[in-house]
Automatic annotation (TrEMBL):
GO terms for molecular function: glycosyltransferase activity. It comes from the Bacteria. Residues 48-72, 540-588 are annotated as: Disordered. Pfam families: GlfT2_domain3, Glft2_N, Glyco_tranf_2_3. Residues 62-71, 578-587 have a biased composition (Basic and acidic residues). This is Galactofuranosylgalactofuranosylrhamnosyl-N-acetylglucosaminyl-diphospho-decaprenol beta-1,5/1,6-galactofuranosyltransferase. Pathway: Cell wall biogenesis; cell wall polysaccharide biosynthesis. Residues 97-195 form the Galactofuranosyltransferase GlfT2 N-terminal domain. InterPro entries: GlfT2_C, GlfT2_N, Nucleotide-diphossugar_trans.
Length: 688
């Protein structure tokens, strides 16, 4: 379709067009995130790894040989030498150079709009000045690139171009994007928007719920950013901060600034620690009680948000054909061009979360661009979205209730599954994202959090597993506990058994445990050597062994699955033997967290093992008596779990409505408020 061309003075706003995505260009972007917004194009050539197929596989190069698919080669880490971003927010391609907006934040995720809305085409408006070409591309679900439209510009004055682009080819996947290519003079992109013609022009109203615990720096900075965003403020009813720590965000120097900018849209609730599920349930409850918001956006306190992503999420929810939860994707806060979560799913037989099918964790856009990464072009359907960023319609909350009282872990997954069962799917929307501390920097399966992992995984399985006895879930739980035993992680093993006992006791205790179980679990771990931590390795005796490893073997090396099985067998046998005497006076080695594989630790009688975050370490010591006792109890509890699964599942499902009801949660909140005292600040002022 040929574009219509007018000068910017003549351009008029099309009646019924609603903008859903603006092209983002900022002069102050740091180079490590520039690849997510704009890239330089150096040449057309052979694609690494097979490319994306612009010219088709098997085309002949100048030498007559068969070449790989041909594509543009993009400069991922910056645009120096290809163009620049001006202080006015214009992207300028240098003479004879090309810039691409086929990037994470600026490509248009057409397949998601095709799947979840009723629109048949999208309207692209572009304002350019200078001399050169605009080239519009689309991709297929296979990652092949198709040239869709193009237009030439030769004008010192701004020229407005408009295109109506079909959505029909995007049933399984694909994106739209465009490049700008300068001729002998510069070509500047001043503005570009993607829009739909619709009679639904009004934005839904938004409450933002942030749960925070002892991260006042992060939380205060996030509030300031929200208060300085006109796009967010236009949508915003209220920002509800649920502060559950003893380092209050209200005491941070930047809180006054945030309070001034947000005014009466800021509400601070201070309560005792109920974890993420308690904090987010409080935020949802407050927003629903107020009654004016269409959506609640749940945000972690330790995220940096691309604020335009909030507007995109709200707009997508407004225009979806049915009520949907809209999730944001997660980039690493430390390595900011790396995406850790494109989409999340649950494997039903194992009942464990992981990347959605056909996706990968750890996509680095500074190394592989959107255009050259084939799997990114498939539309991904998810089971849920993490609550680092998730938009929930208040209609859904009123119908299905608040979070389960899980404290932490699995609350977001369970809520997403419950919403889907009620007819409200989750859409993880590309182009809407936050930067968050990645889980690769944590290991929350070893400390007190192991209790909540175990209990909440089992409870979620009892509620939602499609299999009569949870598929492989009980067996995996047994295997996991056995691995902790051969790894000398007795404190973790003990809290796993406590979680099993609590699950078997039934759902009635879950709200009670919100207030008390964390303290009890921490106290329990202190009775075990692996549950006590030191900040400095010098606090431990120097490693020493009476005899060196046989033939100098490295117990940490396993070349194959057979090798792992052999180590597992020998590790199990040695659990019945008396530990080497010297291992009680000296650890047999220092084991970095990255190397603490269970089959390696199973070969040792003691070891100092560092924590995932690199701040502390613990001394693991093998204890045959503890091993035998916990293994016996584990077998009994897991046998009970399988035997009682059908009846237990019915109990949890029958109690679900009460556990998640606002009335039950209100009783929990009121009990805490009585202990903490009046704790609501509104607009920076104390209120009731």
């Amino acid at each position: 379709m040929s574009p219509t061309t007018t000068t910017s003075d003549e351009a008029a706003t099309s009646v019924g067009l609603r903008t859903v995505q603006r092209t983002l260009m900022r002069a102050d972007q740091e180079l490590d995130v520039r690849a997510l917004y704009v890239g330089g194009v150096s040449h057309f050539g052979a694609a690494e790894g097979g490319g994306t197929g612009q010219a088709g596989a098997g085309s002949e190069d100048s030498g007559g040989k068969k070449s790989k698919d041909v594509e543009t080669t993009e400069v991922a880490q910056g645009i120096q030498g290809f163009g620049r971003i001006t202080d006015a927010g214009h992207a300028v391609a240098e003479p004879t150079k090309r810039l691409t907006f086929g990037t994470y934040f600026n490509a248009f995720p057409a397949s998601y709009w095709r799947r979840w809305t009723e629109f048949s085409s999208v309207h692209l408006s572009v304002t350019l000045s200078g001399q050169g070409n605009l080239i519009i591309y689309r991709s297929t679900a296979k990652g092949h690139v198709v040239r869709a439209e193009s237009a030439r510009v030769d004008s010192a004055e701004p020229v407005h171009l408009e295109f109506e682009l079909p959505l029909a080819p995007f049933i399984d996947g694909g994106w739209y994007w465009f490049d700008i290519e300068a001729d002998e003079r510069e070509l500047a992109l001043e503005e570009a928007t993607w829009a739909f013609e619709t009679d639904r022009q009004a934005h839904g109203r938004l409450s933002i719920g942030i749960t925070t615990f002892n991260r006042p720096d992060f939380c205060a900075a996030q509030l300031v950013n929200l208060g300085e965003s006109p796009e967010v403020l236009d949508l915003l009813d209220e920002v509800i901060v649920v502060d559950q720590g003893n380092q209050r965000v209200s005491d941070h120097p930047d809180f006054a600034r945030a309070s001034e900018k947000l005014g009466d849209k800021l509400k601070l609730v201070e309560q005792a620690n109920l974890g993420g599920s308690g904090g987010f349930s409080r935020a949802m409850s407050e927003a629903v009680s107020r009654g004016s918001s269409d959506y609640v956006l749940l945000l972690d306190d330790d995220v940096v948000c691309e604020l335009h992503g909030i507007e995109r999420a709200v707009t997508f929810a407004d225009l979806a054909r049915q009520p949907v939860l809209v999730g944001g994707q997660m980039f690493s806060l430390y390595d900011r061009s790396v995406m850790h979560a494109f989409g999340e799913s649950l494997a039903p037989w194992r009942w464990f979360w992981g990347p959605a099918p056909a996706t990968k964790h750890g996509q680095d856009f500074s190394r592989r661009t959107l255009r050259s990464t084939k799997w990114l072009h498939r539309r991904i359907d998810v089971d849920y979205n993490g609550w680092w960023m998730c938009l929930v319609p208040t209609k859904v909350i009123r119908e299905i209730g608040l979070s389960l009282p899980m404290f932490i872990k699995w609350d977001d997954a369970e809520f997403g599954l419950r919403a889907r069962a009620a007819g409200y799917p989750t859409v993880t929307l590309p182009g809407s994202a936050v930067w968050h501390v990645p889980w690769t920097e944590k290991d929350d399966t070893l400390d007190w959090q192991a209790y909540f992992h175990e209990r909440n995984r089992l409870v979620t399985g009892l509620l939602h597993s499609p299999y009569e006895r949870g598929g492989r879930l009980a067996l995996e739980s047994l295997e996991n506990h056995a691995k902790r035993m051969v790894s000398m992680q007795y404190s973790t093993g003990e809290v796993i058994l406590l979680a099993l006992e609590d699950v078997l006791a039934g759902p009635e205790r879950m709200h009670r445990d919100m207030s008390f179980r964390l303290k009890e679990v921490r106290e329990l771990r202190e009775h075990f050597t692996d549950g006590r931590v030191e900040k400095d390795l010098s606090a431990f005796p120097a490693p020493r062994m009476k005899k060196p490893p046989k033939r100098g073997r490295d117990t940490g090396v396993a070349q194959s699955k057979l090798s792992v099985l052999k180590k597992a067998a020998t590790g199990l046998v040695r659990q019945t033997r008396k530990p080497r005497e010297l291992s009680r006076q000296h650890p047999e080695g220092l084991v970095p967290h990255v190397d603490q594989r269970w089959w390696r630790l199973a070969q040792m009688d003691s070891a100092v093992v560092s924590a995932a975050d690199g701040t502390s370490a613990s001394w693991y010591q093998r204890d045959p008596q503890l091993f035998a006792d916990q293994m016996r109890r584990s077998a009994v509890l897991h046998r009970r779990l399988l035997q009682e699964w059908p009846a237990l599942s019915r109990r949890y499902r029958e109690s679900l409505g009460d556990l998640t009801s606002p009335e039950t949660w209100k009783q929990t909140f009121e009990g805490l408020d009585d202990a903490v005292g009046p704790g609501t600040l509104q607009g920076g002022r104390v209120g009731d």
